[in-house]
Specification:
Blueprint (H helix, E strand, L loop, with lengths): L1 H24 L4 H9 L1 H8 L1 H14 L5 H12 L15 H7 L5 H17 L2 H16 L4 H7 L3 H4 L5 H15 L4 H15 L4 H15 L5 H17 L2 H7 L1 H8 L4 H18 L1 H16 L4 H8 L2 H6 L6 H17 L4 H8 L5 H22 L4 H9 L1 H5 L5 H15 L4 H35 L4 H18 L1 H7 L1 H5 L7 H18 L1 H15 L5 H14 L5 H15 L5 H13 L6
Helix pairs in contact: 1-3, 2-5, 4-6, 5-7, 6-7, 8-9, 8-11, 9-12, 11-13, 12-13, 12-14, 13-14, 14-17, 17-18, 17-19, 18-21, 19-22, 21-23, 22-24, 24-26, 24-27, 26-27, 27-28, 28-31, 31-32, 31-33, 32-33, 33-34, 33-35, 34-35
Protein name: Protein phosphatase PP2A regulatory subunit A
InterPro entries: ARM-like, ARM-type_fold, HEAT, HEAT_type_2, PP2A/SF3B1-like_HEAT, PP2A_Regulatory_Subunit_A
Keywords: Repeat
Length: about 600
């Protein structure tokens, strides 16, 4: 009797994980249902491989009806389930629930289910692939709802390489069927996977089956399909011999460059440098240069901005034998027009790359042709355009030296430094160390140093914080001797400012500069200032004194700590403010010397 009771208990225990899962998946609380799905691997481990295959997976397949968030989590979990069902030879058990998930209405769930199916497919043997996954693919292809047919598009490339010739033929027919589907969403999904499928199809079938399909999709009535055909264009061009690219790809590409939809032209612009590498130098020279000119002059600002951002990369990829001649005669005239474009995004995109042309065209062409364009952009009404030019100054510095631009740079830097938008001020601060290094100490001292001090007194905390870090980087560039002569005294004077925020900034600067100034300056200049601030009437200043001393202590020897640091911290440790006392005691414990 006792043995029977023990057996019943063991049976109850073995059913427990499934029972709990069933209860949680039926709970009204979505978070509880979501958590139970995320614990599926733990439940599978508790059940063991056989019961996971025979009980858990069938249960999950039958219960696929829930909120999208729960289904998404389930689709993701099942992709990692192969070891839990017994390894690759049992991977087919995961196909039914994933097939169901691949047909739901929510796109992200379907995409995750297809991703997991692709993972599962990779673990199948070639035989199991034909027996289990190919029929799943064919069911999805022939599904009544467009959702299953869109999901099918993502499975062709993982099945095709490992199946028999007869099945391959069926798959090519199925794929072409989806490319001609009456539902635009299905054609769009097929167009998106065309390039991927082309890479695994044999060359003869690429020419006979997929290229006609590609040409047809590039003429689809829906621009969302046509623009995805442009992506496939790159993949197909990479797979074909050069002489066949001209015949099979270029007519379609020329048509896309002149497409009525700006979205298609935009996609051509986005993929142009990839196409350039795929089609080779001869076709680039004969076709793509004129296409690029056309895109740079496009009527839509989005297309011009995309093309502008590609100017330097496109020019760098040109055949060296004719590179300079093509740039000067074909590309530069378009660039000159874009510098004065009516759209700020176009000018900004161009400004972010135009400096990169300098090393390509050389010193003389830079001075004669590019320098005037840089000067125009430095005076542009839009801060982002001026910022983008300044941010890439290192390109031109290597070619002609920044001194050529210094007098024009200054007004642009000053305007940006005082811009009403604090994010613009923040951006120029980040470039200041680079500018300082390139323009030199004398120029910095005369023209830029005061701007750096103004930022330390800015009303926006993020600017003051960035300005302190800026000071540290400039000291790293110019050295501690320069710092002591030119900036440290002006920083320390801030400790007497009537505004406590500026007194705090003084402490923050000391914190930042400690890393680069060394023990002598800390002891000789920083500690006397800190001592003054330790008696500040504002508690925030006093507890920041404690934090600063904690930061400085590792740079000081024991004698300096005993003489200067310890007395200040001991006094702060008896402060009336609880925060000051806390940070003082923290500093006393962690500072060198280990007093408490």
């Amino acid at each position: 009797m006792a043995a029977s009771a023990s057996g019943d208990k063991a049976a109850d225990d073995s059913l427990y994980p499934i029972a709990v899962l069933i209860d949680e998946l039926k709970n009204e609380d979505i978070q509880l249902r979501l958590n139970s799905i995320k614990k599926l691997s733990t439940i599978a481990l508790a059940l063991g491989e056989e019961r996971t295959r025979n009980e858990l997976i069938p249960f999950l397949t039958e219960s696929i009806y829930d909120e999208d968030e729960v289904l998404l989590a389930l689709a993701e979990q099942l992709g990692n389930f192969i070891p839990l069902v017994g390894g690759p030879e049992y991977a087919m058990y995961l196909i039914p629930p994933l097939e169901s998930l691949a047909t739901v209405e929510e796109t992200v769930v379907r995409e995750k289910a297809v991703e997991s199916l692709r993972t599962v497919a990779g673990q199948h043997s070639a035989q199991d692939l034909e027996v289990h996954l190919v029929p799943t693919l064919q069911r999805l292809v022939s599904g009544d709802w467009f959702t299953s047919r869109t999901s099918a598009c993502g499975l062709f490339s993982v099945c095709y390489p490992r199946v028999s010739a007869a099945v391959k033929s069926e798959l090519r027919i199925n794929f072409r069927t989806l490319c001609q589907d009456e539902t635009p969403m299905v054609r769009r999904a097929a167009a998106g996977k065309l390039g991927e499928f082309a890479k695994v199809v044999e060359l003869e079938y690429l020419k006979s089956d997929l290229i006609p399909t590609f040409v047809q999709m590039a003429q689809d009535e829906q621009d969302s399909v046509r623009l995805l055909a442009v992506e496939a264009c790159v993949s197909i061009a990479q797979l074909l011999p050069q002489d066949e690219v001209e015949l099979n790809v270029m007519p379609t590409l020329r048509q896309c460059v002149n497409d009525n939809s700006w979205r298609v032209r935009y996609m051509v612009s986005e993929k142009l440098t990839d196409l350039q590498k795929a089609v080779g130098q001869e076709i680039t020279k004969n076709d793509l240069v004129s296409a690029f000119q056309f895109l740079l002059k496009d009527s839509e600002a989005e297309v011009r901005a995309s093309a502008s951002a590609k100017v330097t990369e496109f020019c760098a990829n040109l055949d060296k034998a004719c590179q300079e001649q093509i740039i000067m005669t074909s590309i530069l005239p378009c660039v000159k027009e874009l510098v004065a474009d009516s759209n700020q995004h176009v000018k900004s995109a161009l400004a972010s790359v135009i400096m990169g042309l300098s090393p390509i065209v050389g010193r003389n062409n830079t001075i004669e042709h590019l320098l005037p364009l840089f000067l125009i952009q430095l005076k542009d009404e839009w801060p982002e355009v001026r910022l983008n030019i300044i941010s890439t100054l290192d390109c031109i510095n290597d070619v002609i030296g920044i001194q050529q631009l210094s007098q024009s740079l200054l007004p642009a830097i000053v305007e940006l430094a005082e811009d009403s938008k604090w994010r613009v001020r923040l951006a120029i601060i980040e470039y200041m160390p680079l500018l300082a290094g390139q323009l030199g100490q004398e120029f910095f001292n005369q023209k830029l140093r005061d701007l750096c001090f103004n930022w330390l007194n800015d009303h926006v905390y993020a600017i003051r914080e960035a300005a302190t870090l800026n000071m540290k980087k400039i000291v790293q560039t110019f050295g501690t001797q320069w710092a002591e002569t030119n900036i440290i005294n002006q920083i320390l004077v801030m400790c007497k400012n009537s505004n406590y925020l500026h007194r705090m900034t003084c402490l923050f600067c000391i914190n930042a500069l400690a890393d680069v100034c060394g023990a002598d300056i800390i002891e000789r200049l920083f500690l006397p200032t800190i001592k003054v601030l330790s008696t500040d009437p504002v508690a925030n200043v006093r507890f920041n004194v404690a934090k600063t001393l904690q930061k400085l202590s590792p740079f000081l020897d024991q004698a300096a700590i005993d003489e200067h640091v310890k007395p200040i911290l001991e006094k702060l440790n008896t402060d009336t403010d609880v925060d000051v006392k806390y940070f003082a005691s923290e500093a006393m414990v962690s500072s060198a010397g280990g007093y408490s």
